[in-house]
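=== RUN LOG ===
request id: a7f3
mode: sequence -> structure
chains: 1
length: 89
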Amino acid sequence: MFSSEMEESVTKRLNRIEGQVKGIQRMIQEDRDCREIMNQLASVRAALYNVSTLLVKNYVMECLHHPEQRESTDEVIKEMIEALLKAPH
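=== RESULT ===
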């Protein structure tokens, strides 16, 4: 499903996000300013959204290039739009 370039890109992004999350944990342990922590959380949230967007684009392209794998292209598009529009809880 993923090209080696896509897999490498996603892996690098997720590793970076993992580092950011660990940094946030340290900030909390160090009792850092809440605004700094919130800024880092916003960065992680944006980075995760970007990864999910990248994965959705890849998935849609795969399904559109191989429509026999899915019932309908419309269904794939609907699923991807719903995934992108899901609000975090």
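=== NOTES ===
The longest helix spans residues 34-65.
Residues 4-85 form a domain with the Methane Monooxygenase Hydroxylase; Chain G, domain 1 fold (CATH 1.20.58.1000).
=== END ===
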